[in-house]
Design a protein that fits this description.
About 40% of the residues lie in helices and about 25% in strands. By secondary structure, the protein is an alpha/beta fold. Strands 1, 2, 3, 4, 5, 6 and 7 form a seven-stranded mixed β-sheet that branches. It has a two-stranded antiparallel sheet with strand order 8-9. Helix 1 packs across helix 6. Keywords: Flavoprotein, FMN, Oxidoreductase. This is NADPH-dependent FMN reductase. One of its GO terms (molecular function) is FMN reductase (NADPH) activity. It comes from Alkalicoccobacillus porphyridii.
Amino acid sequence: MANVTIIYGGNSQRSRLKALHQKSEAAFKEEGHHVDSIFVHELPAEDLIHANFASEAIKEANVKVEQASLVVVITPVYKAAYSGILKTYLDLLPQKGLEGKTLLPLVLGGSFGHLLTIDYALKPVLSSLGATNILSGAYVLDSHIERADQEQFIISSDIQERIDGVLKLACEELNEK
């Protein structure tokens, strides 16, 4: 059993982004892995904005990342890049805080115009934090996720297959460690 930490870079748990979180969490738990989540928007805003490295909430979140073998980074695309909320947290990780970890980026965007966000915006930041094993991840259009009710979402079948494939590869990576 490995430790997985999901960093949720959205600004709400009501977003379609939550579907990617639910899907990821379920897949890793089904494989017997321990899953922790960091909902960045629930961390103290003052600590994020003022880069308060001494904050207990930030320290606790960083311990979850430190203990993880796999870190899933889930973010929406805003202005052709990952969310600012996510960036405020990533800035509070130690300089080599992702070293030796496998990273899985999952990105939700509004159009194919932002398809390269993972490669040109997110991966460089993850690399600067020491990540060397960054899986290809998945870019998902928000139009492929429908809200079924307040807590549940329906992911279109073709995207479901792609996400399942990415999560399967991540699980295989964990099982090899």
